[in-house]
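ZP: hey, is the acetoacetyl-coenzyme A complex queued? I don't see it on the tracker
AM: it wasn't, my bad. submitting now with these inputs:
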Amino acid sequence: MTVAVGIDKIGFYTPELYVDMVDLAHARGEDPNKYVIGIGQSKQAVIPPTQDVVTMAANAAAQILTPESKADIKMVLFGTESGIDNSKAAAVYLAHLLELPSDTRAVELKQACYGATAGLQLAADFVRARPNAKVLVIGADIARYGLRTAGEVTQGGGAVAMLVTADPQILALDDVSSYHTADVMDFWRPTYRTEALVDGKYSTNVYLDFFNRVWTDYQAQTNRTIADFSGFVFHLPFTKMGRKGLRQILPSATPEQQASLTAAFEASQADNREVGNLYTGSLYLSLLSLLRHGNLRGGERLGLFSYGSGAEGEFFSGVVQPGFDRGFDDAFLTQQLAGRHAVSVTDYEQIYQEQLPNDGRDAHLETGNVTAPYYLAGRQHEQRQYRQH
Ligand code: CAA
């Protein structure tokens, strides 16, 4: 008998600051409804200089790890496209901060917003071969397009941490998936840039085209149809993007199922709408949002569409497990989002410019008010100084 493998626990971290999209629209001379309805975002995480992908990942992972589970982690796969070193993996810094055992593999994976999905699939195959092992999979990013750009309303940041195990509590992954790669210049970030370059409209078309391809191929591989799914979860660079993806396939569903899939989508976008784009983590924040706000029951099948510009798309699926709500801390996550505070557009613009300078100078960050368990205190001798409360 093949063992069920998948997502056992999910943690999510985003910093305590956000900018309201109505305020941003006013500052940019746009109709607020363009941002809130047209793009589909209400708030956007503002990332203070004391958080980077390593600290955000640590803050997410700490929520789901125990001394017992740490001892079983045999691999750390860190998906990010805003890494802090071109050589050393963020996963190695993370493993150290989390005090994971040294008999673990730790590597970083990059393919735009697809990195965490690559990690999840590699982790699942690893655990299928070694059912006693656990793998920590991370999707952590800071989405930066630049002040006063068209992409500005689709920024954000945060980290999702997933524990992949045999006999998972949350989602048992089906061992079939469909993926597609093509060399496409829709979004990229050369090593000399801190902000992404993007051909925005083109990127949305490539996203929809890739979704169509992999969904069609998945159905051919499995003989499943839309009727076999209780929900579709999308990579959400902004929530309207997933809404467009869902609209592409809804006509093939019955009216009743169209209503229930639409309700599931509303649940799946609720938390992303409050945070913005997490790049690699966005699909998994959307999954968490559906688990938290939807009406799922054990045994229901979900479809997941992962998209990383450049480009890679994958459609895969999994079955929700009975008692899935024990795999995350709902009350903590609600409090984390509700406990954030708004900054003005002026303050957001200032914080946006405050990341560590790109020239290797020593830097000491103001950390007196930091409440996050893991944080960055600055840089000395070209080494980031990580701290823990
Ligand atoms: N009330 C309601 N809706 C309004 C409105 C109003 N007053 N004014 C405009 N809108 C609607 C528009 O009709 C449009 O809706 P549709 O797309 O459904 O037609 C929507 O608001 C956006 O308007 P525009 O297309 O005019 O917006 P824009 O030109 O300023 O840019 C964008 C939008 C291209 C998405 C831009 O924000 C961008 O470049 N974002 C970054 C790229 C991105 O996220 N791409 C997604 C695919 S790539 C990916 O997924 C990987 C990744 O994470 C980056």
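AM: back. Residues 31, 33-34, 37-39, 113, 150-151, 153-154, 187, 198, 200-201, 203-204, 207, 235, 237-238, 240-241, 277, 279, 307, 309 surround acetoacetyl-coenzyme A (CB under 6 Å).
ZP: great, adding it to the tracker
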